[in-house]
Amino acid sequence: MKHRYEVIKDDTVLTVREHGELDKEMFTLLCIEKYELPRIFAALDKGLEAVIDALRSRNFYPTRYAAEKLAIAAAEVCRAKDSNRLEFVLDDTEIFSDIQDPTDVLEEFDEANDSEGDDLEDLLADDDNLKTTKGTFRVADSEDFEDEEP
After folding, report:
1. Contact, 76 vs 120, CB < 8 A?
2. pTM for this one?
3. For residue 139, is it within any domain?
4. N or C: which end of the chain has fewer CB within 10 A?
């Protein structure tokens, strides 16, 4: 399943919208979470783990992979001077086959959290992590289980 996330910053609130794919390129809204900006900026000053903790709630608890991408997106939106909105898509099939090095995630977060407020387009130009996949997996055929007795 594909998930589309929108991260939007206004004067006092950071909003995260999660959409799930119902059919090819047809998404429906699953969840909207709003966060007070001072809380997010305080978490940004503490690092990646603090941002992930701040974004997760009782009603919105994304997977680790999605939470890392959301934390990076939140940093990019909050630190950018020229934009207050970011949208990206995560595909569950890519998540299961993409093995990320934790240091790469931290470097990407640190770059996005740069207080200089770089241009969003420059930050996103090098982000190929969502489009590359590594490894494969195979689902067993039902015939493989026919000989087994319960």
Report:
1. yes
2. 0.68
3. no
4. C
